[in-house]
Sequence to fold (1277 residues):
Amino acid sequence: MTEILRVENLKKSYDGFLAVNGVSFTVEQGELKALIGPNGAGKSTCFNMLMGQLKPTAGEVFLDGQKITRQKPREIWRKGVGRTFQITSTYQSMTVIENVQMALLSHHHRLFAIAPRAWKLYRDEALEFLRIVSMEDQADRSCSILAYGDLKRLELAIALAHRPRLLLMDEPTAGMAPTARVALMQLVADIVRTQGVSVLFTEHDMDVVFAHAHHIMVLNRGELIADGDATEVRNNPQVQEVYLGGGTLFKEAQDA
Amino acid sequence: MAFFFAQFLTGLANASSLFLVASGLSLIFGVTRIVNFAHGSFYMLGAFIGITLMQILPGAIGFWGAILLTGLAVGLIGAVVEMLVLRPIYRAPELFQLVATFGVILVIQDLALMTWGAEDRLGPRAPGLRGVWRIFGEPVPKYDIVIIAITPFILFALWYLIARTRAGILVRAATQDREMVGALGVNQAWLFTGVFALGSALAGWGGALQLPKGGADLLMDFNIIGAVFVVVVIGGMGSLPGAFIATVLISVLNVFGVTYLPQSTLVLMFVVMAVVLIIRPYGLLGREEVAGEHGQVGAPDMPIRPYGPVGQALVAALLLVLALLPVFADQFMLILMIDMIVFALFAASLHFILGTGGLVSFGHAAFFGGGAYAAALLVFHTDTPMELAFLFAPLAAGLLALAIGWFCIRLTGVYFAMLTLAFSQLVWSLAYQWRAVTRGDDGLVNIWPSDWLGETASYYYFTLILGVGGILFLRHVIHAPFGYALRAGRDSPRQAEAMGINVKRIQFAAFALAGAMAGLAGGIFVFSKGSVFPTELEIAASFDALIVVFLGGVKTLAGGVVGAGFMTVVEDWLTRLEYWRLLLGLVIIAVVIIAPEGIVGSIRTFWNRIRGSEEEAAK
Amino acid sequence: MTFTRRMILAAAAALTMAPAAVRAQDTIKIGEINHYKRMAAFAEPYKKGIELALKQINADGGVLGKPLEYIYRDDQGDPAEAVKIAEELMTRDGAVMLTGTILSHVGLALSSFAAEKGYLYLAAEPLADSLVWNSGNPNTFRLRASTWIQAAMLAEEAAKTDAVKYATIAPNYAYGQDAVAAFKENLKRLKPEVEFVAEQWPALFKIDAGAEVQAIERAKPDAIYNVTFGSDLAKFVREGGDRGLFDGRNVYGLLTGEPEYLDPLGDEAPEGWFVTGYPWYGFADGTPEKAFVDAYMAETGETPKIGSLVGYLDVLSVAAAIEKAGSTDTPALIAAFEGLEIPDTPIGPLTYRSLDNQSTMGAYVGTLALQDGKGVMVDWSYKGPDGYMPSDEEITAMRPAD
Fold:
């Protein structure tokens, strides 16, 4: 397996408070990796630094050995990193398929074209991506009237349209019903398997994490306290301490 | 030294009335997010009501009592306006309310003319405060000293009201987060009415308090509104301490500007505003605006589609009618249609960045007038052939838009709007003051088309081809990838950036394109009228376009064009009547209330409701 | 869909909404364009002056046996709108010529338009010199005495004093700048040692009077030349009076004596200023000036303003030109206006100079004083424009070749 993402000693401080304190890890090709931790552990901060929304105080991020630290989100995207948002972010005034076409227009460097009709471009290609997330039958619906779970799947299709090598998903199942969560994560796992893309995701739902992630990292107070497969993490005393102390669902997850 | 001090006092005295008015505007914006252009009208009402009351009430008690009562009266009027005009449209798209406030301006102008007559009124003197006190030997009017002394108390009273009373805490909470106030069980409608009344009352007090230093006249509403907005923006919209600091800053700078740079009076404050906004994009004490924070975002836009066969056939039929118009219409009809097409193209170009791009520009006339001036300057000074000079209009306007956009595009929301306004004022003052080149207010005259376009009918065809062509071109661009990218940046800048779209660069290009198209309209305009004056660069010209875009419907593609057509016809018709401003104001208010999504948007909603289902609405 | 439908509706509305113009030729129609709302304080007396004259003329049988009629249209103070309305008045409403406007830039737009389309335009109140000089054309005539003429009258008076150091204050736009330039040029010609120590340019109707007064005071001028008017003037006079700016200084005020600007000042009218204006209260019984004032007050119940006089003279000029032309077609009217002489008007004989299409209406000059708590002009005199204009050669050189 080759390494896709390498994070070295990443730090972020706000007025002296260290939100992320020297986090280092790697993501391998074709890996589905979870980043978990209690509220305020620094997961989102970490994610936003990887994606360029936040500038790290210190540390480096490498994609395929290439440094991408402190680059803008759109530059990181160009290098092959896709993302989905904790709160879905789609183009409400467009149809489902146009949302995907938009990503394709960007992918094919056609953003400044003024001659063609946008909705005619890359329609078949966009349909392919909708098919992957089983949204093809809703292609021409207005994005503004979609159910929340469908929006999540649409976001996934948008992210896939750029054929990313790495996909960052911030709480992909947040706000969804339990059955829908399982379905979505199943879909993600399938995509990892069939498309050869690596996925790094954060998640609250331990069922989801332990059922699907190949590897799990645990973040607490800005520091990585565990990085391994499900069993390793489950048996890590520090992790147990954090989660039992926090009174979370960890116990249930263990039972599952 | 004494001279400096005396000047400083003059600046402070000027600041006190301005601060009252500005704090009212800031308060209203902070809580209700309404950009209230009618605020100057409440100031004017304060002056007129103040004079009337001072004539009734005698003596010093009468004078100060009259000022107090004036504020209450104007506050009451403000409450009525809020309940009748604004309350029905809080759910409309953001900034839509400013159209309604524009209607209010027109109504109040004519009502004031009916009530108080046309003649200027000199303000009564404050009893016992005529004349000067000498401070370090310099004469300072007694009344100046008194209002300088009063202002801190007003500031304190406001601070106390906002920071220490329950009502004030609610107001502050609403400024931070309006949803929360609703959650606290407070009736939001009445809170808004109360704040609007208080803001209006402050404007009324401002108008009454300045009486001994000036008077009341029918132009004072427009004459103060620019300064008030500048102050509120420099201070940071919604921030009272910011408004206070900015008022003092602007007033004192003005006084020194008058002494050391007497020619600067037109632009000084706009230069200050531009500099402040470039350095601090949210004013001195303002905070960043979060997208959609304006609350009334309204329903999301519909997906767009080019017309189907039926629509295309109808457009073709309309174009055919327009093409045949010279056969059956008289000369004036053609002139009216030329005006309408020029205005429609101008509005469409604004609509392009406003509707599709989500960038509210308050200074779009800079490009319309800029294009007109570019062509006219070439003809006037170098006798350039009309055809060549005409080409220069969109080109120069586009370049101007590139230059202005470079500064503005990094800002968002109301601050973006105000910076465009500041730059358009700079362009205006250039045309107004650089007389050697522009002839200033005398304008550039005798800018007529070449002989082959000299006939009204041939110029009509010229306008039809280029004007309608420009509108169709913009429409085409909206449907093209570029238009989609622009819309993507408006819908979700976060997602757009995360999919490789350089949102600011797209907006920058769109701003330049819109500027060039406005310049094209300006080019057609100048050769149809034969002259151009700084009037075309005024704030009012920018707002004309803004208002028709909102009236037509921001969230529709045809909104700008339909709004422009509607306004041209209504205005042409109404200005024949005696109290046309009153009627026009009422028409605007009526349209705003009946059709809160704009004319086109409301017709579409109505049409969709008839046809029923949600899926239909999506098409 | 809706786009097309609305456009058709709008177009259809536009086609049908214009009231079917009454084209009956039973009256002679004059298109009168003005800023009735935006400049209401000035336009209203002007309109009343017109109506008085129309009433008198039509009572005497009108012109060419037909009643004379003015069609009033509001241009909102917008030159582009004025041009559009002018077209409608001429092509649809059957007007035989155009007149009106107060603001110079609107007048200039109409002038250029009239020349291009071959219409006749009589500018009533605009003061800009360029209207008949630099931008003059054969189709445009102007009634009122221009900025240059009135400034020259004040400069003549100023040159008689031993004041050397002058300060000027004028609104920051074309009129103010022209007025200052004209005053300076005339005064320097008459008295080369004069020096201008301060030039203040407040924004129109946005004067910061306290600061302006302080700035002038700081320059310690011997005399002051004022061009501000309206609300600016009121604030300037009040601040200047309070701060003693005018004490011991001669002040020359352009238009300051016109009732439009003087009346609102009430008992704070600045005594001792030498001004141009309109002393309607000072006319002797039996003079045509007095007869006009009496008729006007009887008709309207108001005291006349300068605008009233201009409106009245406007109608007299138009009527005389039509009578002289014997027809209402434009070339004949233009020919009639060139060198038109009207023997009896409230200000005596009035001529439209064929040299530059400017009428010989002059101006009243005098000194301000307080009487019964109101400002009035005393020791006034009426001066014709002769001697206050550039030479004929200079004017001819300025006018573009016809």
In short: Chains C and A do not touch (no CB pair under 8 Å). Residues 40-59 of chain C form the longest helix (20 residues). Residues 258 and 278 of chain C are 5 Å apart (CA to CA). Chain C has two domains: 23-147+289-361, 148-280+363-383.
